[in-house]
């Protein structure tokens, strides 16, 4: 008896390691109530395909060539908030995992997870759960206990130049380096130089973290969501 489309969970996979991508596809398709809509090795292509296929769940590698899995998750959740993203990583890199959860991921999996753990994680997010370790869950709770104005104070104390502030505002809107360069009439390489300086000043390691810190500062200073 075939299952209706409504009872099948469609899953997209973003993984640059071909063997791991094929393995995840096999795991997904081994369940009669799952269907893999595709495996993509780069976030840029995956975002376009995910927008076209509209799967319910995405298994997203954190470390991808080009756009990172964290940034891809942030963009995906802004445009398609109903899609559930599970980060897939080799190590328990708590800082990256926590940044991914702040970007909108619903949980995470280690790449050495068993096939049943992968399938269960997909079922968990479909049921409204968030598969993750107790340690990461505790850090999420602690983040909610931080005063809203703390981030505003942090970024206000940083002396950003006018150009760096302009660039950060465009970054927070989700623009790519080339788009930012076009808006500010500067080269992509100059955008990268400014980004490195911004990262150093804000003590962050990625454009997603910088954007989130900027957005948090605006929310904190306004006192409104």
What does this structure look like?
The protein has 225 residues and is of the alpha/beta class. It folds into 2 domains: 139 residues, Rossmann fold (3-Layer(aba) Sandwich); 76 residues, Arc Repressor Mutant, subunit A (Orthogonal Bundle), CATH 1.10.10.10. It is built from 11 helices and 5 strands. Strands 2-1-3-4-5 form a 5-stranded parallel beta sheet, sandwiched between helices.
**Domains, number:** 2
CATH architecture of the largest domain: 3-Layer(aba) Sandwich
Helix count equals: 11
The top level CATH class name of the largest domain = Alpha Beta
CATH superfamily of the largest domain: Response regulator
Distance between the termini: 48 Å
Class by alpha and beta content: alpha/beta
Short characterization:
The chain has 225 residues and is of the alpha/beta class. It has helices at residues 18-29, 43-53, 69-79, 94-103, 115-126, 134-145, 149-156, 162-172, 177-184, 188-202, 207-222, and strands at residues 9-14, 34-40, 57-61, 84-89, 107-110.
Helix and strand arrangement:
Elements: E1 9-14, H1 18-29, E2 34-40, H2 43-53, E3 57-61, H3 69-79, E4 84-89, H4 94-103, E5 107-110, H5 115-126, H6 134-145, H7 149-156, H8 162-172, H9 177-184, H10 188-202, H11 207-222
Parallel strand pairs: 1-2, 1-3, 3-4, 4-5
Q: What labels describe this entry?
A:
alpha/beta; Rossmann fold; Arc Repressor Mutant, subunit A; 2 domains; 11 helices
């Amino acid at each position: 008896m075939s299952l209706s489309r409504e009872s099948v969970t469609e899953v997209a996979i973003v993984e640059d390691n071909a063997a791991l991508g094929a393995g995840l596809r096999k795991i997904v398709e081994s369940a009669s109530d799952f269907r893999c809509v595709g495996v993509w090795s780069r976030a840029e292509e995956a975002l376009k395909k995910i927008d076209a296929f509209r799967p319910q769940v995405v298994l997203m590698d954190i470390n991808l060539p080009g756009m990172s899995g964290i940034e891809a998750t942030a963009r995906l959740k802004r445009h398609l908030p109903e899609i559930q993203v599970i980060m897939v990583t080799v190590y328990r890199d708590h800082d990256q995992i926590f940044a991914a959860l702040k970007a909108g991921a619903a949980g995470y999996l280690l790449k050495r997870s068993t096939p049943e753990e992968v399938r269960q994680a997909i079922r968990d997010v479909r049921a409204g759960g968030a598969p993750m370790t107790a340690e990461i869950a505790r850090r999420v709770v602690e983040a909610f206990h931080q005063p809203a104005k703390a981030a505003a104070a942090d970024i206000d104390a940083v002396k950003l130049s006018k150009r760096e502030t302009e660039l950060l505002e465009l970054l927070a809107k989700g623009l790519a380096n080339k788009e930012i360069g076009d808006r500010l009439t500067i080269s992509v390489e100059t955008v990268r130089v400014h980004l490195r300086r911004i990262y150093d000043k804000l003590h962050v390691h990625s454009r997603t973290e910088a954007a989130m810190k900027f957005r948090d500062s605006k929310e904190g200073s306004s006192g409104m969501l």
